[in-house]
Write a structure and sequence with these properties.
Helix content: 25-40%
Shape: globular
Distance between the termini: 49 Å
Number of strands: 8
Strand order of the largest sheet: 1-3-4-5-7-8
Strand content: 15-25%
Structural class: alpha/beta
Order of helices and strands: EEHEHEHEHEHEHE
Radius of gyration: 18 Å
């Protein structure tokens, strides 16, 4: 077994208007971490080389998440993580993220007001600062920074801002830009709701 995915939680600190997590029917669960050390031992015994920390939820809201990440790194595994980087983070959290091989984040737009409206609970400037701090932490220790991915959930509100999105991403060291198709759920009340690209007119 070469690669394993671990989902620590299905909870999230954001309420993105297009996301299933923002819907009332979304179930919220956390991984039982009491036997985490046994899990690490099992992964080592199976000679797992890569661990993807991901899932529907936001790992960085789980208590001691950084300690679990460090443990996987110490065990000799290449760790990648999907995170929204949307909240203020202490130095120890930034340091943990800087040890990842790959860091995948959600960033739909570089328009700060639209970013905040779609990704409810997030601040674009905090997001940018976290991106820069993670890279700086690795560079300060003469380590290669994580391979940085920005993912945009393509929709009618953000699609015409892609040129600026790429330009800002390049300026902060993004390695890979990814577009994801929007799976549409019923609109949320009092929210900036978005539409799939296929719903747009030809004009």
């Amino acid at each position: 077994m070469d690669r394993v995915a671990i989902e620590f939680t299905t909870r999230c600190n954001l309420r993105c208007t297009y996301c299933a997590v923002a819907r009332p029917w979304h179930a919220k669960h956390d991984l039982e971490v009491g036997n985490f050390e046994h899990l690490v031992e099992d992964l080592q015994r199976l000679r797992v080389k890569q661990v993807q920390i991901s899932g529907v939820g936001e790992t960085t809201i789980v208590k001691d998440w950084d300690r679990y990440l460090y443990r996987l790194v110490e065990a000799g595994m290449a760790v990648s993580i999907i995170t929204n980087l949307a909240k203020a983070m202490p130095d120890r959290a930034i340091q943990a993220l800087s040890h990842c091989k790959e860091l995948s984040t959600s960033c739909d737009t570089v328009d700060a007001s639209l970013y905040a409206a779609i990704r409810q609970g997030a601040d674009f400037y905090q997001f940018l600062q976290n991106n820069a701090r993670v890279r700086a932490a690795a560079i300060a220790e003469r380590r290669k920074p994580p391979y940085l991915i920005w993912n945009c959930v393509a929709n009618d509100r953000v699609i015409f801002g892609l040129r600026d999105w790429v330009a800002v991403g390049m300026a902060v060291g993004v390695d890979h830009f990814q577009l994801s198709d929007l799976a549409q759920y019923p609109d949320l009340p009092d929210a900036v709701n978005v539409r799939p690209l296929a719903a747009m007119t030809r004009d």
